[in-house]
Amino acid sequence: MPLTFNPKSNTLEEELYHYQLQEPDQPNLFRDLFPYGEPPRISFNHRLVPMNPPNRMYISDTTFRDGQQSMPPFSVEQMVDLFKMMSRLSGPNGIIRHSEFFLYTEKDRQAVEKVLELGLPYPQVTGYIRGRKEEFKLVKAMGLKETGILCSASDYHIFLKLQMTRRQAIDMYLDTVRAALEEGVIPRCHLEDITRADFYGFIVPFVQELMELSREANLPVKIRACDTLGFGVTYPGASMPRSVKGIVYGLITYANVPPEQLEWHGHNDFYKVLINASTAWLYGCATANGTLLGIGERTGNTPIEGLVFEYAGLRGTLDGMDPTVITEIARYFEDVIGHQISPNQPFVGRNFNLTRAGIHADGLIKDEEIYNIFDTGAILGRAPVVAVTDKSGRAGIAHWINTYFRLDGDNVIDKRHAGVDAIYEELTKEYDAGRTTSVSDEEMLALVRVHLPELAE
């Protein structure tokens, strides 16, 4: 077998096998792994691949595409507002590199126009279309420089949904990619359902053809590996098609995708969405795709706020990102859009840095670093919160009120307020009568409605 010198690893390596497209008569549904009538299985071949982080890591956004599929549609104004906040979160270095938009309705196109009018450098505005050539006219009409193209990759989609052979599907996708390249538009091929796809019999030969088109056109063809149902796993030695490490390594090594053209898109069906994305980063994928608050179809996508802190943890810097905007985004979702955020959702939930345990509360009062993950007041604009108990006193009650209702400046409620005193007296009677639990938010709200009704209006 011929040897070639790899300048990246600085070693002689065997020339890799060139994978050919496999054309089965029947779909390969990996029934040993996905029996459907039972929970899916995780298999191992005990093959390990090297960790190889890319030179630069980025985040990309699908809030206005996949995110919108999970909730009532945003208005144009809401999309513009969220995009502006996302740009501030991204910072001057454009860590949140691009955001994708539907192009099918007049409202979608109007949102794209309004966002483009902002003239913000990042995130870059990109489109999203299905893998049919006739849909490219939507991208061309909007004058976008990049578009996502749906390229369903598993036999579940190719055989059962599209009713095609693998070759027919590839030819359809390639026609759309060629149309984009001919217009100088960067195609981003979304390999849908890659964690149930025949990696060596379909994914690698298809992506090799895409890379050949990229070389001919002298334009990048980007690849998005889409873990559509959240089947990806990060365990060492896990076998294909579920291995996140194996997918990223294989796309770079066997399909010749440059790391900067590779992106990971995940779903949270099995609680693995963030670790899968960060593992993709560590094994060579330059971009991790997500949504604000992790909204998205079914169980949601990778939360961008989680990726922000994962990036900071892996790189040792926020690289200009402004995490205080995360709190603004969360409040906008709740106050303007009417979206209910789970109270204990990390970084954005109302109670994410609230402690109810008395011993923890005592520690926070003495030094908040004991029980707070980091300086949430400085980094997220949200100081840690202590739940009301028999040890809280009037100051603790006033603190809860001011925190819950986000009061500041002249609107702050003082511990000597008559309403605070009345609440304190009621709670003291309950604890004197034997109560041992902390006071819930619902109970505090009920007391505020009685004793400070002006706040609860």
From TrEMBL:
SUPFAM superfamilies given in the database record: Aldolase
Establish whether keyword tRNA processing is in the entry.
no
In its keyword annotation, does this UniProt entry include Zinc? no
**Stored Pfam families:** HMGL-like (PF00682)
Keyword entries, A-Z: Transferase
InterPro entries tied to this protein: Aldolase_TIM, PYR_CT
Q: Which GO terms describe its molecular function?
A: transferase activity
Q: Which residues form the Pyruvate carboxyltransferase domain?
A: 57-327
Top-level lineage group: Bacteria
- Its recorded name reads 2-isopropylmalate synthase
Its taxonomic path starts at: Bacteria, candidate division KD3-62
